[in-house]
Design a protein that fits this description.
The protein has about 100 residues and is mainly α. The chain is about 65% helix and about 0% strand. It contains three helices and no strands. α1 packs across α2. It is elongated.
Length: about 100
């Protein structure tokens, strides 16, 4: 299970637990939900620190991977192929100049 899923489920679980704890309190339901949201956010800051850090590391690794793939794509589109081959991959053998016919 990814860290983002674990962290999200943890946040939802904390919210549900705080709502359940506030259920017997005699106040408006919307106020209960707002208070539960605030308390669960504060609790998750302390209780879910490990999962939050793990999720941040996964997101940073994914961003770095995307950045390197983007640079490789830019390099390939610019003709700076890593293998040193500067010929176009779409070029057909024997068709060096398609505008002209065969030369004698």
């Amino acid at each position: 299970m990814s860290a983002a899923v674990k962290y999200t489920l943890g946040r939802i679980g904390l919210f549900v637990a705080v709502v359940a704890a506030l259920w017997p309190v005699d106040i408006d339901i919307f106020l209960k939900l707002i208070v539960a949201l605030l308390f669960s956010a504060a609790l998750s800051f302390f209780l879910l620190k490990g999962w939050r850090d793990e999720m941040a590391e996964e997101m940073a690794a994914a961003a770095e991977r995307r950045r390197s793939e983007k640079e490789q794509l830019r390099s390939a589109l610019a003709g700076d192929d890593a293998t040193g081959d500067t010929a176009s991959s779409t070029e057909q053998p024997g068709s060096s100049d398609p505008g002209r016919g065969p030369t004698a």
